[in-house]
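Many introductory courses stop at the sequence. We go one step further.
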Amino acid sequence: MKRRVIHCGTGNTGKAALKGILHHPDLELVGQYVWSPDKVGVDAGDICGEGPTGIKATDNLEALLALDADCLSFFGDAIGRADACYAMCAKFLERGTNVASFSGFELAHPPSAPARFRDPVEAACRKGNSSYFFSGIDPGWATTDLAIAALASADRVDCVRVLELGWWGNYTAEYVCREFFGFGKPPGYQPILITGGFMQTSWEPTLRHIADVLGVEIDGWETVYETDCLDHDIETGFGTVEAGTAVAVRFELRAMAGGQPIAICEHVDAVGHGAGKDWKWPYGPFGCVHRIEIEGDPMLSIEVGSPTTGPSAGLRCAMPVINAIPALCEAPPGILGPLDLPRYWTRNVRPIKK
């Protein structure tokens, strides 16, 4: 039985998710929500470059709610508008439509989620007997699910480190790159990542999940943020990064237990080659690498990589959400975390020639 899906989100990752829905043998696209008036009436397949599907994009939320679909795939922009995004998702949950979300990190670890966001969504789940699930790539599958999988082959664990080693030179999201992460800012500048608590909001859930499976209580948090620069301008997808400003960014969020870090999220990201020479960098052909390092006995390392440009770049971020939809539709109601769903995977297999 195919699950009937409504999709929301037509940015770079949202378009990739839309492709994933159209390719998935167990999913059927029945609706497409858009905010932009110029996209209303456009075929969903044309939005993501897949060709006509017969599903026209609409901004009529009531019409989409009336479809009583099995799941909403939510990839809307939640930065600075989390309340509106959760309110929209709650309307679907109240109707009995499950929500698989890439947007908003606040509910990623349900037990510690802020009541301001958790309580209305939980109430909507109870009313509609529906489920809400967040994932992504980082934070998400690459920092939570992959780390937990790696622990299956561990004995003594001293610390679990989850890393993104990324090339951001082609990213086009200027506000996120400059204001949230600090690219193009002078030395000593503290971006919203630090001053707005964005680091904790985004990556605390990942580290809490790791601590949960280890049976360790977190008793404190530590943060590290540093940048490096070059002596010449760098042209990026979001504009010019001037000489002497941040070309490479490294940060850590550390979950502490007994005075020692038990789990660490580390990012080393850059838009120009040659900066941050003493930092870790990815190997091979991939523009973005996610690595799990288990410090203990035995020492373990798992690494996955993918391009950050080209037609498949967004799929690595989108597919942990899309592939979870069939399992989510079978799950009990409520706000669910990665440990609440059975294992899930793609079923989009190239036809075998006979």
